[in-house]
Amino acid sequence: MPVVVARAPDPEPAPAPEPVQRVVETTVQRAEAAQPEVPQPGPGAPPGQNADELLRKLYDPLLRRLKADLWLDRERRGALTDL
Fold first, then answer.
1. Which of 10, 54, 63, 67 has the fewest Cβ atoms within 10 Å of its own Cβ atom?
2. What is the pLDDT of residue 61?
3. What dihedral angle (degrees, nearest 10) is formed by the CA atoms of 74, 75, 78, 79?
4. Which residue intervals of the chain are DSSP H helices?
5. Which of 34, 57, 35, 37 is closest to 45 using CA atoms?
6. Residues sharing a CB contact under 8 Å with residue 47, sequence separation 6 or more, in sequence order
7. What is the pLDDT of residues 16-57, one digit of tens each?
8. Where is the composition biased (Low complexity) (predicted)?
């Protein structure tokens, strides 16, 4: 016995959407003769200590930590050839 197959008609293609035009408005305000602000020390910074003094104080401990981390990474990789 032959099988009858019915096919639904192809739907019509949807019309292309209309392009959307976006408008962006930008507002610019100008400050009148703004003077540069002097950076204020943070709440934890001792008064009267400038950046050079802090650098001298922190450089050696940070350098030791960095060297130790690099040495540990080389040791983990098995690349300790500079000893």
1. 10
2. 93
3. 40
4. 51-77
5. 57
6. 41
7. 777 777 777 777 777 666 566 666 656 665 566 688 888 888
8. 19-37
